[in-house]
Input
Amino acid sequence: MTESNDIVMTVEKRSDHGTETARKLRRAGRVPAVVYGGDKPPMSISVDEHSFRELLRGKGGEHTIFLLKLEGAKEERRAMIREIQRDPISGRFIHVDFIRITAGQKLHIRMPVELKGDCVGVRHGGRVDFVSRELEVEILPSDMFDKFTIDISDLDVGHHISVSDLERLLPASARFLEDAHRVVVVVEMPKVVAAEAEAAPAGELVITEAAEPEVIRKGKVAAEESE
Output
């Protein structure tokens, strides 16, 4: 089953559950996790925190397909990260959910959205409202990619980009599980500026400073124990 380009992650099976057990694992440098899906019962495992972090920093991003190899056994299974829970203060991993990959079976996942470009609407006094930072898609594992990257350079005040405008970014096997009219990003005039413009006497020039685009990187944070 192993191929030369597989990103291998060695995991340990665990039978003990509960909050205290999970805390002991974390103190020992391991992260509690669960593998589910693929028409099989969920399996409780743990992964080495340092190795896991290095894989994510390197060639294995959160949408990478890993080959999970069970320590001390011949059992192995391809899986992808479904969710990572992190401590909101320390950033340490709290829990990881993996989903098994079955050949030919499509996945329902949430893909991050990233904005790029010097928005013309901002230079005209508008502000960028980043409405949808994640979009849910149905896609084959073999067609997975990291994120949607949207160029907003030509987006002027009053203009927006909706889900339907991003169809061209999807591979043939994929489709959005979102309303096609859902707004992803819009450039609008700040309310204070708009009110001042309406109140200004006819012919009077209203001068405002352009706001910077409001672009914040997505992060997954969950503070609750998951065991």
